[in-house]
């Protein structure tokens, strides 16, 4: 751990948060997908084949009213690799966006908040 000088002149510890791959979610949300994806089976098959190259057992949930697809992988590594390779790529004329579900971000914020509140509580 490194020490840094605080604004008031005292020294404080800098805390590094170590995120393991196993801490990440194993799902992605596809957004900005073509509207035909929800009705044309050949387009669905083509879409799904993009993700099966990262995990042959990947599962899909189509949310037509939200124009989104939830893509669930067996592990977080496959999800991360798929996002790195396919985010903002063209699929049937639209630039597809891939995101990890928002729940993870909210959980990490809450976990950090609890971590720092416990640190402050123990210091006082």
UniProtKB/TrEMBL annotation:
Belongs to the RCAN family. Coiled coil: none annotated. This is Regulator of calcineurin 1. Gene3D superfamilies: 3.30.70.330. It holds the Pfam family Calcipressin. Inhibits calcineurin-dependent transcriptional responses by binding to the catalytic domain of calcineurin A. Could play a role during central nervous system development. InterPro entries: Calcipressin, Nucleotide-bd_a/b_plait_sf, RBD_domain_sf.
């Amino acid at each position: 751990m490194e020490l840094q000088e605080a604004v008031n002149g005292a020294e404080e510890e800098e805390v590094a948060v170590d995120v393991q791959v196993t801490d990440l979610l194993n799902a992605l949300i596809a957004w900005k997908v073509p509207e035909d994806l929800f009705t044309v089976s050949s387009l669905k098959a083509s879409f799904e084949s993009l993700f099966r190259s990262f995990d042959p057992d990947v599962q899909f949930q189509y949310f037509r009213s939200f124009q989104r697809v939830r893509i669930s992988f067996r592990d977080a590594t496959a999800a991360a690799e798929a996002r790195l390779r396919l985010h903002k790529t063209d699929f049937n004329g639209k630039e597809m966006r891939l995101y990890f579900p928002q729940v993870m971000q909210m959980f990490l914020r809450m976990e950090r908040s609890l971590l720092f509140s416990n640190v402050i509580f123990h210091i006082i």
